[in-house]
Write a structure and sequence with these properties.
Structural class: alpha/beta
Strand content: 5-15%
Strand order of the largest sheet: 3-4-5-6-7-8-9-10
Radius of gyration: 19 Å
């Protein structure tokens, strides 16, 4: 296990112990593809990754599609100086086919075994490893491949030593139940934040009952709950940032989302942390959630949410957030974790 001074928890039955927060490398993929966050300085990306490692974070999440492989390449460069004991776990995803001729075309969701195997070999090469710590199917396939077939491909890749553990991303309970009959779903990676709460109803309880590790993504809802966003900044997002087209940032829900973020400030002040840390800690308060994937493009951004790794919100905090969710009308889904 990578060494760390931060608290760790078991990632399901994978045998890996992970910190409650991990670095998300989506934005690190840089510009020039359909779901980019705009230009990114590679040197700053590397500095952010190394700052995470030196701060005790022992895992990070990337994907082949992020920057069409560029994110995986940057992760490899950033981790080159570290020994096996120092190197964090690296999780990646497959199933989105890269279009080199038209990088702005939304990537097809492919479950074909040959395509998945080719993509995994490319990820292994870009990351410079022989075995992936965790391989996840990014989205349900849309090419006609049955779930049973592409999940079996991932199970086969695990059996062949290409991945230490395998899981699903963006799959619902029905899909989890189908996959589980073939082989244990070791992890689920769903979207989850105080704005996007739908998975708390079914997916999180299912994972808790089946000892499936859950690493949630976008716990700050792509920055909306960072405490540093407002209507003016959202309106100024450049066209090459995918958030400029997201209704959460510019649509009718935007005002409610900003109001919810503002409601987290008194809680942050009580705990002497940032709004971002409170937003991340809220996702970690839910039973079934193992860890949260949090993005950063610069070292100082890491410092803003790192306290979430140890922050425990009180019942009063959770009640206050639930009331704010109801009051603002932000998002959808259960507003509060069950009382313990």
């Amino acid at each position: 296990m990578p060494s760390t001074t931060l608290p760790t928890v078991p990632l399901g039955r994978t045998g890996m112990q992970i910190t409650r927060v991990g670095l998300g490398a989506w934005a690190i993929g840089g510009a020039g593809w359909a779901y980019a966050w705009g230009p990114q300085d590679d040197a700053e990306s590397i500095a952010a990754i190394r700052h995470c490692v030196e701060s005790g974070i022992n895992w990070m999440d990337t994907a082949a599609i992020y920057g069409h492989g560029h994110s995986e390449e940057i992760v490899r460069q950033a981790l080159e100086p570290y020994s096996d004991d120092e190197r964090p776990y690296v999780f990646t995803k497959c199933g989105l086919e890269i279009d080199r001729e038209d990088p702005y075309r939304p990537a097809p969701r492919v479950g074909d075994a040959q395509s998945l195997r080719r993509g995994v070999e490319e990820s292994l090469r870009r990351l410079g490893v022989e075995t992936l710590d965790l391989l996840q199917m990014h989205w349900p396939a849309a090419d006609g491949t049955p779930l049973e077939d592409y999940w079996q491909t991932l199970l086969d890749l695990q059996a062949e030593g290409k991945a230490r553990a395998v899981g699903l991303s963006n799959h619902d309970v029905k899909s989890l139940e189908i996959a589980e009959k073939l082989g244990h779903v070791q992890t689920l990676q769903p979207p989850f934040s105080a704005i996007r709460r739908e998975v708390a109803e079914k997916e999180l309880p299912w994972c808790a009952a089946h000892e499936t590790g859950v690493i949630v993504y976008s716990p700050m809802q792509a920055g909306l709950l960072s405490g540093r966003f407002n209507a003016a900044r959202a309106a100024a997002l450049p066209k090459d940032d995918w958030r400029s087209r997201d209704p959460n940032f510019t649509g009718e829900q935007a005002a409610a989302n900003f109001a919810l973020a503002d409601s987290l400030r008194p809680i942050a002040e009580r705990h002497n942390v940032t709004v971002a840390a409170v937003a991340v800690a809220w996702t970690l308060a839910w039973p079934g959630v193992t860890g949260a994937i949090v993005g950063a493009r610069r070292p100082e951004q890491v410092d803003g949410w790192l306290p979430a790794a140890t922050l425990q919100l009180t019942d009063e905090d959770l009640d206050e957030i639930a009331a704010a969710i109801e009051r603002t009308g932000a998002g959808a889904g259960p507003a509060r974790p069950p009382r313990q």
